[in-house]
Amino acid sequence: MIELRHLRTLIALRDCTSMAEAAERVNLTQSALSHQLKDLENRTGTLLVIRKTRPLRFTTAGQRLLNLASDILPMVRSAELDLERLAGGEAGRLHLAIECHSCYQWLMPTIDEFRNHWPDVELDLASGFNFAPLPALQRGDLDLVVTSDPEELVGVSYIPLFRYESLLAVANQHPLAARNHIEPEDLSKEILISYPVERHRLDIFTRFLDPAGVEPLAVRTSELTVMMMQLVASGRGVSALPNWALAEYLEKGYVSARPLGRDGVTGTLFAAVREDQLDTPYMQDFLLTAKDISADTLSGIERAR
Known about the structure:
transcription cis-regulatory region binding; 305 residues; amino-acid biosynthesis; transcription; two-stranded antiparallel sheet; HTH-type transcriptional regulator MetR; 8-stranded mixed β-sheet; alpha/beta
């Protein structure tokens, strides 16, 4: 008989790069996890995981059980949440702010799913573009901040949601579209189109141009990603954005995109949460839902580990 612990182990093996990391995820020793996996293989009568690969690879049978785990475990979690509410009536407040202009693509489905699970939690969403959300989180005015720029603040933890790569979007006819990658000096004669946020919060400056001592010809700002892409497509500038924010425009052929530097520029999107709220059931559910929906919705990202 297949048990829930087996399915949770398979999910951990999928999300982790090694048996040791997976064992830590499910609070087992590596030996205990190996025994549990062997037990499941004995029960099913087939090999499920190819162990000498990194990351671990699943056999066809293992992938079938992994698909089952992906279907069943969210249903179990939803039922557990319903039982918790019936038993104790979980209620609270979840006031959010985002520092990411293009986050709505995955954040709004996350919020919709969360409302279904936690109708008694007061939910509010604000943009963090015109005020300092992390100090507001520390004060207790907010409960969660979505940010790619963590600051060391007492009592605040940062939970990684997913990793991404920043790319430079250029017009299809732009000479840079023929390059394998972009060098900082390539932007010295380009108008850089960015969101209207401080320079120190933009990876294109802090991790690409500033270390090389390069300035773009000019900087132009826009609040909307679609407007930025219209400007890029018409040859009025270039723009650095996360790969997942560009995916829709690249698939439709509106613009081209190239990596920043030979090794690329990668970043992580975090959920900043006060430590006193981190273990509340509805906060844990929001974080898990955000990770699941972003992984299912966005192209080119890497699951946070």
